[in-house]
Amino acid sequence: MKKCLFLLCISLSSLAQSSILGKRVTSKIDSSKSPEIVLIQEFSVNAPLKSVWDAYTTKKGYESWAAPLAEIDLKVGGYIKSNYNESGEIGDTTTILTHIVNYVPLKILTLQAELTDNFPEFMKKEAQDFYNVIYFDQNPDGMTTVKSYGIGYKNTPKYLSLMNYFIPANEKILLNLISILEK
Predict the structure, then answer these.
(1) What is the Cα–Cα distance from 57 to 104, expressed in whole angstroms?
(2) Whole-angstrom Cα distance, residue 63 to residue 82?
(3) pLDDT at res. 116
(4) Contact, 100 vs 77, CB < 8 A?
(5) How far apart are CA 169 and CA 167, in angstroms?
(6) pLDDT score, position 5
(7) How far apart are CA 130 and CA 109, in angstroms?
(8) Which residues are 135's β-sheet partners?
(9) What global pTM score does this model have?
(10) Which residue of 29, 50, 78, 94 is surrounded by the most CB atoms within 10 Å?
(11) Long-range contacts for 104-111 (Cβ within 8 Å, ≥24 apart)?
């Protein structure tokens, strides 16, 4: 029972954070898949589907909102290499490598990150379990909705605590994307 209450508190906390940010990004944790949890984050943006897809899948698009340095090889078995260090370079020790597991153009993108030394040890041991499945949908009103499922997290206090970092950090970067796309 305590786990469920803790999940509810995190979910409500993140939703309160989203409310402060103008309800543009919603975040929730689904714990119905015990012993795992799923981080679900969703937003709608006033931009064409192709523009949103390109923001995730092209160098120019990714560098406009996610990381100042990126290299993308969009194919099954391809990758997104990103570096948040503007004075760094792709391939140095601060580069993050994300594998493209699969995709359907303009519909779905499945990613799996290689965890670097900056991640907690407990996550590194379970790195093969983590995926991000992202759905893209063009709405009849011209808006594009993106729904991201972070899967593989465990329903343990360590992971639940980690969500307190991931949720606001992800929301902040997604708000940056919305801002860039709606300019």
Answers:
(1) 12
(2) 9
(3) 79
(4) yes
(5) 6
(6) 30
(7) 14
(8) 108, 147
(9) 0.85
(10) 29
(11) 105/53, 106/49, 106/50, 106/53, 106/136, 107/135, 107/136, 108/133, 108/134, 108/135, 108/136, 109/56, 109/57, 109/133, 109/134, 109/136, 110/134, 111/80
Q: Regarding beta strands 79-83 and 36-45, do their DSSP bridges make them parallel or antiparallel, or are they unpaired?
A: unpaired
Q: What gap in Å lies between CA 7 and CA 70, rounded to an integer?
A: 34
What length does the chain have? 183
Pairing of strands 25-30, 36-45: antiparallel
Q: Beta-carbon neighbour count of residue 162 at 10 Å?
A: 18
Residue reference for tokens 């779905």: 108
**DSSP conformational letter for 84:** S
Collect the ranges in the chain with pLDDT lower than 50: 1-21
Q: Which two tokens stand for residue 82?
A: 């990103």
Peptide bond into 35 cis (omega under 30): yes
- Pair of tokens at residue 153: 């997290």
Please report where in the chains the tokens 């290499």 appear, as a residue.
81
Nearest residue to 32 (alpha-carbon basis) of 64, 3, 56: 3
